[in-house]
Amino acid sequence: MRSGIDLAAIDPTARPQDDLFRHANGSWLAATEIPADRGRYGTFDVLREAAEAHVREIITEVAQAAPTPGTVAAKVGDLYGAFMDTDRIEEVGLQPIAADLAAAGAVRDADDVISLLGRFAREGGGALFQPFVNTDDRDSTRYVVYLEQGGLGLPDESYYREDQHAQVREAYVRHLERMLTLADQPDPAGAAARIMELETRLAAAHWDKVTNRDPVRTYTLVDAEGLADLTPGLDWTAYLQAMGAPDGTLDAVVARQPGYLTAMAAAVREVPIESWRDWLRWQVLHAWAPYLSEALVAENFDFYGRTLSGVPEIRERWKRGVALVEDALGEAVGQLYVERHFPPHAKAAMETLVGNLVTAFGQAFDGLDWMGEDTKAAAHAKLAAFTPKVGYPDRWRDYSALEVTPGDLVGNVRRAAAFEVDRNLAKLGSPVDRDEWFMTPQTVNAYYNPGLNEIVFPAAILQPPFFDVDADDAVNYGGIGAVIGHEIGHGFDDQGSQYDGAGNLRNWWTDEDRARFTERAGALIAQFDELEPADAPGHRINGALTVGENIGDLCGLAIGHAAYRIALAGQPAPELDGLTGDQRFFVGWAHLWCGKAREAEAKRLLQIDPHAPMDQRANIVRNVDEFHEAFGTVEGDGMWLAPQERVTFF
Known about the structure:
Blueprint: H1 20-31, E1 40-42, H2 43-64, H3 72-84, H4 86-92, H5 98-105, H6 110-123, E2 129-136, E3 139-149, H7 166-182, H8 188-205, E4 220-222, H9 224-230, H10 236-243, E5 253-255, H11 258-270, H12 273-288, H13 294-309, H14 317-341, H15 344-366, H16 373-384, E6 387-391, H17 409-425, E7 447-449, E8 454-458, H18 473-490, H19 511-529, H20 543-568, H21 581-592, E9 595-597, H22 599-608, H23 614-618, H24 625-631
Parallel strand pairs: 3-5, 6-8
Antiparallel strand pairs: 1-9, 2-3, 4-5, 7-8
């Protein structure tokens, strides 16, 4: 039997007792350079590149087969072909966005601004706020519109106020000026300064990343009249008309950050219209730059790639073309991907794994000494209501209403955006579609959706090192088993634990149990606040931002290991490649987080990413008793954490 351990990645000079991450991945780290078109590179990226290559093969084969015009196959080929036709793109220049730039320069008042933003919302342009449709957090049987803060060109509100980002702010203003100059817009230098001033005002009203993780604070349900009270002076009727939204769209709205909406409305009323013209022109250029001439593409990458993430080279054009097709027609390509790259026996094996993980979770609840019986009963009820989705949807998306025209790149992107707007708005007033997927089968990732209480594992993640149908159970349970446990764990982390089994935001905990849970979460926050990533030494992790994912990791490890024990059915685990079963489990976990990042990208991710850096995700095992038992750690080892300092949830 193969162990499934990547022996070539292991660094025998690094003891697992001192640094599990470096022991499991050190040789790979030493031998691997981050590709020039990436800010970070690791296990997920290797698999994503493989999936990307597979999708490219599908797209090119479909296009070369000369499909009948109007078919989904033809749409896939025509969209990709339009993106790859650089001669045509250079020939048309700014023509595809000329009307947008003219409209931006012609706004006269607040009503014009909000109306133009409605048009942008339909066609994929920039936004002061992001509308989206989702299940109502307080009533999962219906859909409502959510409004999310927006309007910023920098990654996060902190970039506009913290001293550490001063150089980025200066580079951003230069970028604004260059983009406006390339597009022959008036007064580029003055406009850049005015845009920065306006965005700084908007940023001051933004809620920070940690606050935005609170599902209760970010839920304010209003009707159309309540929305008008929150945003005095904004003509929402004009916005909806320009967006092509049906009457009643805003009859129920969840304001994610109500204070921002009020401040934004005040800015629309109070900021001079000249500044809004500048900002709207910038929104046009920023939204459409990836689909325009090489000069605009290069300038856009220079700031958002090189400056923010330290990436030396832009991704090859075919990769960007594949990404566009994935965004617009992802499930159409996914259907072919599954046929070629996801055998039925892999799905069956995964369903068995999921079943063992759910069983292990139920047993874990029963053994908790910090959770009372009433809360345990509610937790069991939520677990019983979980819906697992594996591989691909049971019903594929219908793209018949999407029009794709050969040679019309920007037009195609506009129509793809409008198709998505119409598809999502059509949900309002309709029964909740519990079969919908929010990732394509070729996506290397997984997710938990609290509103539907579901865990979803696309086909592309179900391959080594996450899952190898022919490998030893230990590595599979340390890999995809821990990932499954992680996603189930999100149903019981600091956010997901506030939703019940039906997907409703409701407190099902006793006050005493919630207090004990919060105490443990606080200890985990404090633990990570003291940690630094290997790729950005001297910079600390934000424990409050990453706590949900860190809880998920600890749940994944605890439940993945318990499920592994279930799979052993009382039989002893064999020793393979000189490792016991438990040792292989933890090395398999560490392999998942094999990777490295450029320093600029590592720093950027510390500001905005709710996941801890890769090395610290691997080494979170210092909290797990079974890890210390498996490797015989002692006080003084790098991975040692005294038993009373270890944070556990299950």
